[in-house]
Amino acid sequence: MKRILGSVTALVGLGGGGYYYARDVEPRLLTTTSENLTSSKIPPELDDFTIVLFSDTHIGFHYSLEQFADLTDDINRLDPDLIVFSGDLVDAPDTYNWNNELIQLLQKLKANHGKYWIYGNHDHGGYGTETVKNVMDKGGFELLQNTHKTIKRDRGQFVLAGIDDVILGKPDLKMALSGADPDLFTILLAHEPDYADNTAHFPVDVQLSGHSHGGQVRLPFIGHLYTPLYAQKYVQGKHVLDEGNLALYVNRGIGTTRLPYRFFCRPEMHIFRLKS
């Protein structure tokens, strides 16, 4: 609470212009971060295979369906082979006004090799577990809850795995990778980035996470003032663990939560390109 109060105090201290910018301007300045995932485990058939990651939309809290509609257009313009969502669809499932428009927007997202998602803590919160799953199912997204899929293009293959939410779910990475070929390039979806310290003990090459929102409010020379549980060690960007064997990418998310502000922390989606 002290850190959240500090964020508010800092924004007020910036004056009316800074407050307006943090509330009404920067949250709409979407950044697309492009990364190459290079490995000898990636076969030539998968060269330039593209994956779009988006996370933490928190629809209903300072983020509207109109904005989400714009996001779906932005994603489709990237023409991805695969779309992944790393959790927290709406901010408060128990009070959100669920409707078919959200389902239709999820259906609008197109990827030739599928659309996958995992639970975030807000998806489980507010008794949202089954409600969110029902909406994502109807939207054409497949849930990876302690399980994996082998993604294929021509003769090329890689493993896409996902775990349950760390805070409110029952994550089991051993179960998620059960039956997966450890020699294939493996990507894990895990909502909370700090889980990477556990992931490093498994045959996973890349972990994709959200949850942190990058801190939402970041001050020059100080950085973020607050991040949630299990996003306190790895807050944003790329991190290399296990002597280079695991790469963690932390997405800053799309929406906001707790406070409707972003400052020096623009919303973000990722596009990853596999490189053999």
From TrEMBL:
- InterPro entries in the record: Calcineurin-like_PHP, Metallo-depent_PP-like, Metallophosphoesterase_sf
List the taxonomic lineage.
Answer: Bacteria, Bacillati, Bacillota, Bacilli, Bacillales
Calcineurin-like phosphoesterase domain span: 50-214
Pfam families documented for this protein: Metallophos (PF00149)
Say which species the protein is native to: Lentibacillus halophilus
Entry protein name? Metallophosphoesterase
Q: Which domain of life is it from?
A: Bacteria
